[in-house]
Write a structure and sequence with these properties.
Elements lengths: L8 E7 L7 E5 L9 E6 L8 E9 L12 E5 L26
Parallel strand pairs: 1-5
Antiparallel strand pairs: 1-2, 3-4, 4-5
């Protein structure tokens, strides 16, 4: 018998920017966490390049006893400098000012 895998999602709140106050179902990765960065492309009405709103995942809160993370939320990041690139631990720094690994 073949078991079907279910795609899991989590209702995640957004803070700041154009999505402030909204809660969206965000797909969870193989680790059970939502992605670190959530990008929302918005088409340009004049057929120009789309505007991309970037949100970063941050802890929603911590438990009192053990300090464990109690869920996630996304905060607006208007100064995104990653350019949508993945950063691997073995990658060389790009050398741009303000560009940090991590």
């Amino acid at each position: 018998m073949a078991e079907t895998e279910t795609v899991k999602s989590q209702d995640t709140p957004f803070e700041g920017g154009p999505m402030d106050g909204r809660v969206l179902p965000v797909l969870l990765g193989p680790t059970g966490h939502p992605p670190k960065t959530y990008r929302i492309p918005v088409p340009d009405p004049d057929d120009g390049p789309p505007t991309v709103y970037v949100y970063r995942r941050v802890p929603r809160g911590h438990s009192k006893r053990l300090g464990l993370i109690q869920g996630w939320k996304y905060e607006y990041d208007p100064d995104d400098t990653s350019g949508g690139r993945l950063r691997w631990p073995w990658s060389k720094p790009s050398g741009k000012p303000g560009d940090t690994q991590g």
